[in-house]
Amino acid sequence: MANQNWARAERDALCDLLAETGPDAPTLCEGWTTGDLAAHLVLRERRPDAAPGIMVPLLAGRTERVQRRILAETPFPRLVGLLRQGPPAWSPMGLPGVDGVANTVEFFVHHEDVRRARPEWEPRQLSAAFEDLLWRRLSAGRFLLRRVPVQVTLAEPEGRTQRLTKNGKQARVHGLPSELTLWTAGRGRAARVEVTGEAEAVNVLSRSRWRM
């Protein structure tokens, strides 16, 4: 499975689920339906002129307007088809090597955003290879948690640990790499993890909010 394209697999699985749920189903993305999520992902790959607002708050207004327009003007099956097709050759997201780096975690998290917003969901049994890849990508969580005033260490069942932040009292988050990925992406309420450590640090983490 070393050559498995995990980004492609998660993209296809997400598209299958979107086609099943339709545009009005809930997601874990606050305020977004499945239609909003699909429009966001299509914008990210096909509207580089509007995509900077995903990361830059000053430009977010334009990004939101373009996203709403995409959703309003594109039939949902067409939107899912564009997402399944992937970025066009002229898109920065279509450059060689970008897919695995930029999309593996992105599509895993958004796939779970739809799955775990449904009633009676259960975690998927992911392969050891995919769990290992997600573990290696968890260092990106340092950026997401950079303003959290707690020393956060991630711990997975095999005994490996990663320290994401260095300031404040100590807390440790235990779980499978897939669950830790969701936790670091701000989906703590849906992630099956255990948080231990100094009471003040655990309390701060329970109140803190961050998003991928």
UniProtKB/TrEMBL annotation:
Signal peptide: none annotated. InterPro entries: CHP03085, DinB/YfiT-like, Maleyloyr_isom, MDMPI_metal-binding. GO terms for molecular function: metal ion binding. Residues 8-47 form the Mycothiol-dependent maleylpyruvate isomerase metal-binding domain. Pfam families: MDMPI_N. Coiled coil: none annotated. This is TIGR03085 family protein. It comes from Actinoallomurus iriomotensis. The lineage of its organism: Bacteria, Bacillati, Actinomycetota, Actinomycetes, Streptosporangiales.
